[in-house]
Amino acid sequence: MRRLEFRLIDSLKKGDAGEGTLGSAAGHELKRLPSTVYWAMVGAWRIRTRDYSPGEFFANAARLRDLVANNPATDDPESRGVTSEEAEYLTDRITA
């Protein structure tokens, strides 16, 4: 993750977004990565409402993606083997 963050900083410095980018002056000598600053800010501003680390956040996000991918939505007719004609019929009957 640290390596990727440095790559992002380098890319931003090469583009027009270098000035004002956290870490652009210190470069690879940074002691505190911009992501830790951003993470603390979204917590302080109560955008992030749970107290977990970035690693825990991304692990939970990955689990959620897997859960959604392996469990089709119950309101999706195609996930239950309903043909498009059957779905259209049901939609017409429900909205009539």
Task: Give a brief rundown of this model.
The protein has about 100 residues and is an all-alpha fold. The chain has helices spanning about 1-15, 35-45, 55-70, 85-95.
Map the helices and strands.
Layout: H1 2-14, H2 34-44, H3 54-70, H4 84-95
Structure, explained:
- It is a single chain.
- The protein is an all-alpha fold and 96 residues long.
- The chain has a domain at 2-51.
- 55% of the residues lie in helices and 0% in strands.
Q: What gap, in angstroms, lies between the N and C termini?
A: 54 Å
Radius of gyration: 22 Å
Class inferred from helices and paired strands: mainly alpha
Characterize the biggest β-sheet: none
Instruction: Compute the number of strand runs.
Output: 0
Shape: elongated
pLDDT below 50 for ≥5 consecutive residues: which ranges? none
User: How much helical structure, as a percent, in the residues?
Assistant: 55-70%
β-strand amount: under 5%
Number of helices: 4
Order of helices and strands: HHHH
Round the mean pLDDT to the nearest integer and report it. 82
